[in-house]
Structures are given as structure tokens and as C-alpha cells.
Amino acid sequence: MTAVLAVTGATGGLGRRVAERLAAAGAELRLVVRDAGRTRFLPGSEVVENPGGYADGDGFAAALDGVHTLYLVSAAEAEDRVQQHRTAVAAAGRAGVQRIVYTSFLGAAPDSVFTLGRHHAATEEALAASGVAWTALRHSLYADFVPSLAVVGPDARAVIAGPAGSGRASFVSRDDCADVAAAVLLDDSGAWDGRTPGVTGPEALTLAEAAAVVSAVAGVPVDYREETVEQAWASRRPSGHPDWEIEGWISSYTSIAAGEMAAVTDVVATVTGHPARTLAEQLRAHPEDWAALRR
């Protein structure tokens, strides 16, 4: 019997890319989603609904019945995100899943400056204690996310503002993340068990440099403006979002300033056989990433 490979987050930007690559490779695929109505048909794929998401451990375990390998896309930002991940890992173990490939973050550690880096470290600890073979693909900040950091002002200039200083980030294309994930998921040799490879772009840029790249590709003026932490809180509080979420936003900048996102690896090239895409290459290939800046 062919081993069943389950993909979560298949209606999202990363999970969809991974599912498409696995389907093209002929994998026996199960898409575990909250809403089957949002799932695009993929040849050879089975769709199983789990409306309760990771928080519903019993529902998730039932959705994974008969699955050998699980691609576990990290949950949307939430105050109970770590608990959701722990519940999902435990459910996978109960369901008899043999292997989990998880989407973690570059430099994940209990003492990360970046709030989400600490969350991912806690999830990796749960994976290590689960008794299931596991791999944590530690992604850098997504390159396609960079334009969304910019706010367009009344003068049509866009500004990326935050306390990142002159720190650098190795922005990575989600296309590359998906290529790496598909290769790792299809390799059942055990070579990836217990490993935490950093998946990055080919260069580390300051936010001023990244803003210049976005400006050149999108054809609109984009600048970086340094903020203090206090200014960052003041500029984001009016959004009405809860403090835990704002802290996550701001700590992504302070993490860059601390050098936590500056590492550049050769994982993309080594695993996929093609070079990692630059920020400019990602944005040229995906104009939808920056279309909002021109409205």
C-alpha cells in the first residue's frame, strides 16, 4: 500500500503550493482543511474536513487516520497558538502518524527576540518529545510578505516603519519553501529525521534595501523609516489589534535588529537543485504580492 501523505493549510499560500507539487509527483495525498469548499481539486487527492482545526484534537486525529507522513503548517497567529500546536502533535501521535514535517522559523529558540520564534521553539520541543519522527523546516521571513509591510500615505509614497535598525533578513520565497518541503516529504529515507534546516533566500537585506527592491519592481516609491520601540507601539495601537498580536509584529523588527534573521543557507539550492530566488525575482514572478501598493 502506498503511504498516505497529509497536508494541512492546503487552502493557504504555502500549503497550496506544497500540495500542488506533491500531486504533480504522484503522491497519495490527503488535504486536511477546515472548509472543503475552498479546496482546489488536485489529481489523486482526498479532502477531509476538520472544522475545529488544530484545537480539536479528536477531530484532527480522526482526519489523520491512516496517514503516514504529515505536513504540519503552523497555525494562524493566535494567543493559544502553542497549545494548538501541542494538541495537533499529540493528535498525530494518537492517529498513528509516523512522520511530521513542520513549518518552523529561522533561529527558533526559547529566548528568541521574535515572539513567534519562541512559539516555534516550544512546538519543536513537543515534536521531539512526541515519539514521532520529525523535521522542522525553519523558514526565514517570506519574501512575498515584504510589500505588505509598507503603508501607502496620502502622497502615494509607501513607508515601511519599524525598529529594525540596520539589521538584515534573508527573505525567502514561498515557492522555494514549497520546493524544499515537497522534496523532504517525498524522501522517506530517514535522512531528515530530527533535523532543523534553515530555509532562506540567497542574501540578507536591510529593510532599507528591501524597500528599494520593492520600489524598483513595483514602480512606486517605497522607503524605510526607523522607529523606536515606543513609536512602533504608538503607531500600531490604533489598529485595535490585541497587545499579543502587536507584540508579535514589533518583535519581528527587533528580531531583525538583533541579527536573528540574517543567516543565509544553501538549503534551497542543495535540496532542490536550483538557486534560491532573490526578493526581486519573487516580486517579479508574483505581481499580486505588491499590487495593493499601486491602488
Quick overview:
This protein is of the alpha/beta class and 295 residues long. It contains ten helices and twelve strands.
Number of helices: 10
> How far from one another are the termini?
52 Å
What is the CATH domain class of the largest domain?
Alpha Beta
Shape: globular
In the residues, how many domains can be counted?
2
The gyration radius over C-alpha positions equals 19 Å
Q: What name is given to the CATH topology of the largest domain?
A: Rossmann fold
Mean pLDDT: 95
Q: What is the CATH homologous superfamily assignment of the largest domain?
A: NAD(P)-binding Rossmann-like Domain
Oligomer: single chain
Q: In percent, how helical is the residue content? A: 25-40%
Tally the beta strands.
Answer: 12
Order of SSEs? EHEEHEHEHEEEEHEEHEHHHH
**Structural class by sheet pairing and helices:** alpha/beta
How would you write the strand order of the largest sheet?
3-2-1-4-5-6-10
How much of the sequence lies in strands comes to 15-25%
Low-confidence spans: none
Task: Summarize the main sheet.
Answer: 7 strands, parallel
